[in-house]
Amino acid sequence: MAQIIIKNVRKEFGNFTAVKESSFTIEDGEFFMLLGPSGCGKTTTLRMIAGLELPTSGEIYLDGEEISQRPPSQRDIAFVFQMFALYPHMNVRKNLSYPLVSQGMPRAAVKAKVEEVAGILGIEKILNKPVGGLSGGDRQRVALGRAIVRDPKAFMMDEPLGALDAEFREHMSEELRALHDRMGATTVYVTHDQLEAMQMGDKIVVMNNAVVEQFGTPQEIYDKPATMFVADFIGSPSMNFLRFDGSVAEGAQAVEMNGQSMQVPRQLEGTAGKLVFGVRPEHVTLSDAGDYRGEVLATEYLGTTQIITLDTPNGDLKARVPAGQVATVGEKIGLGFKPDTITLFNENSGRALRSDLNREVLSHG
Amino acid sequence: MSSFSVTEPSPRSKWFAGTLVILYALITMVPLAWIMLTGFKTPPDSISYPPKVFFEPSMEGYVNLFTTRTRVGQEALDALPPPDTWYEEIVRERDMVIAGPSKFGERFLNSVIIGFGSTFLSIVLGTLAAYAFSRFKIPLADDLLFFILSTRMMPPIAVAIPIFLMYRQLGLSDTHLGMILLYTAVNISLAVWLLKGFIDEIPREYEEAALIDGYTRFQAFYKVVLPQAATGIASTAIFCLIFAWNEYAFAVLLTSGTAQTAPPFIPTIIGVGGLDWPAVAAGATIFLLPVMIFTVALRKHLLRGITFGAVRK
Q: Name one Pfam family in it (chain B) (predicted).
């Protein structure tokens, strides 16, 4: 089991830069998510850790050893592919034995180990079947089995649930997480699904356009986004951005927006110009009082909550409020925002302004 | 209730298609059947008019194919001890004795060595090249591939004279090696292009999984990619073998003795003791067999192979 350190890693494919200098640390035993939209460089990063791509520059440490230029066979890392990549000309047992055979393990030991892993995954019954006829879930289990069978230092998973249908995904993600908790192995997991990342991950790296946008726990990423991209990408519906021209002073606890004073966490840096007032939908409250008002455009009933879309002087806004609250389209409602949850962004750079809310998070980003 | 399906042919259209295919097969089989039958006729039967469909089978053609014979006078024939083999008996009836084996066996063996040798070499080189083109970043890969294809844009026989001169200089004329190299050179572009298509279809993840599982790239290639490419390799091998096996023009030009293949040899049988059609037909029949056996043996792969992997996903 191992700690993985990514240090200034960069990958170019010809003229195209897939990953720009990226650094983050994956602690021993963590379930670590690489999250981002497609083409953001997350899979390339994963493949560089596994050795399927060699970084153009930068270092990768596995358990303190620099491995960035080593062939995959010498890294002791397992990889679960999105399309499973089970060897189609072998049956399940052979697929599971294959990584052990390469290590020159004696036949009896291979057999015992394969049975053990099959037991863990509940696939004893299909051991002698060809992989061709297996269901998606069983293929997934065999692919996992092939990864865990040789007790590698770390697991790389490239959207392993991407090929499963929605219903089964949920079940499999629980199974995956349980498996991880039982084995305690460092796992790096690539996904473009923010829900999956939030649900399963101990830590998340959010990547966009070949750059690491933010790195932290799911709570940190959700509550204290470092950039507008992260704030927008995480959460459904995503964070509201109320755009305004104004200024904020160092130490200020309120900003002036449309002539109204809005309370914010104590700011640690001052700036002026185009600013963005970021608030999560569930941190918006509706009341008849309130000077900042918006007109209800639409309501979306979700059972326990409802999403209300409002037109405000600073752009559209979505509020998540209890389902029982009455709001009719066309009505003008007063809006309140939970002050300690607000993040201010500089619209030009897209970066969050430092405040009491996010000081620890931004210091290492 | 009758239902209409776009994808599933109706029983009637299936029956129609089946009949059509069988009819076509029968028509194309007639020359083949005729050659095989002629091999078992006596020389008079083989040239009788109207042609004989029903006849008394004889092994004379095959005996003549594999032997050389000399005509002897009646007294000398009577002086000989009675024939002790069935084939000698056949020869005696024509007032001849067996002088020795003919060269057909040798020539046939040459065909086998050269045909399968060049097929093997084409497949080995073609697979490696196709794999490299498919998986690695090769500078000017497209231009190289076009160059490889362009070697087939001219009929090979157009360069027969230069090759003839070159081979004479290099001492490759009438050698097995020379013919194997020549047929390989002709087949390699077909092999590279066909196999590249097949290898492109094999997802890279299989090899990557093998690399991760602790294998070297070469091990991943032959343990994971090759079994996957078996279909493509089999059908490419058949194409290569058919060309090398049937090739006539270069064989006539470049071989005359030790390395002569069966195609230029079979017509020379005609010259021995008149028009010996049964012997020629026997030679042609035997000559057809290896490709037929090879094709039938690989037919499972071939059927999937000629769809160029379109079905496999």
A: BPD_transp_1
User: What are the structure tokens assigned to B21, written together?
Assistant: 């295919």
Task: Check whether residue A206 and residue A89 sit in a common domain.
Answer: yes
φ and ψ at residue A296, rounded to 5 degrees? -70, 125
Whether residue A248 sits in one domain with residue A337: yes
Which residues on chain B are in Cβ contact (under 8 Å) with A87?
206, 209-210, 224
Share of chain A above pLDDT 90, in %: 59
The verdict on a CB contact (< 8 Å) between A79 and B224 is: no
Contact A73 B216 (CB under 8 A): yes
Residue A319 contacts residue A286 (beta carbons within 8 Å): yes
In a domain, A320, yes or no: yes
* pLDDT of res. A363: 58
User: Which residues in A158-186 are b (16+ Cβ under 10 Å) and which e?
Assistant: bbbbeebeeeebeebbebbbebbeeeebb
Query: Do both A169 and A259 map to the same domain?
Result: no
Nearest to B62 by CA among B277, B310, B282: B282
Cα torsion A271, A272, A278, A283: sign: positive
Asked if residue B206 is part of any domain, the answer here is yes
Tally of domains in chain A: 2
Residue A275: which region, alpha, beta or left (left: phi > 0; alpha: psi -120 to 50)?
beta
Strands A65-66 and A211-216: unpaired
Contact A146 B209 (CB under 8 A): yes
CA angle, residues B171, B176, B181, in degrees to nearest 5? 80
pTM: 0.79
Q: Which residues of B touch A114 (CB under 8 A)?
A: none
User: Are A88 and B212 inside 8 Å of each other by CB?
Assistant: no
Q: Average of pLDDT values for B68-75?
A: 83
Domain containing residue B129: 105-305
A344 vs A226: CA distance, rounded Å: 10
pLDDT tens, residue by residue, B93-128: 888 888 888 889 999 999 999 999 999 999 999 999
Give the Cα separation of A190 and A218 in Å (integer): 15
Distance, CA of A220 to CA of A364 (rounded, Å)? 12
Please tell me if residue A261 touches chain B, with a CB cutoff of 8 Å. Answer: no
What was the ipTM of the complex prediction? 0.80
Distance from CA of A136 to the nearest CA of B (A): 15
Q: Which residue on chain B is closest to A71 by alpha carbon?
A: B211
CATH code for the domain of B134: 1.10.3720.10
Residues A273 and A300 in one domain: yes
Is A306 strand, coil or helix?
strand
Interface test with A, best of B137, B212, B304 (most A CBs within 10 A): B212
Q: Which of A86, A89, A146 sits opposite B228 (nearest CB)?
A: A89
Q: Decide which of A168, A201, A223 is a domain's last residue.
A: A223
Q: What is the per-residue pLDDT across A201-228, written as a single tens digit (0 to 9) for each? A: 999 999 999 999 999 999 999 999 999 9
Task: Choose among A77, A83, A98: nearest Cβ to B203.
Answer: A83
Asked if residue A326 is part of any domain, the answer here is: yes
Answer yes or no: are the C-beta atoms of B129 and B94 closer than 8 Å. Answer: no
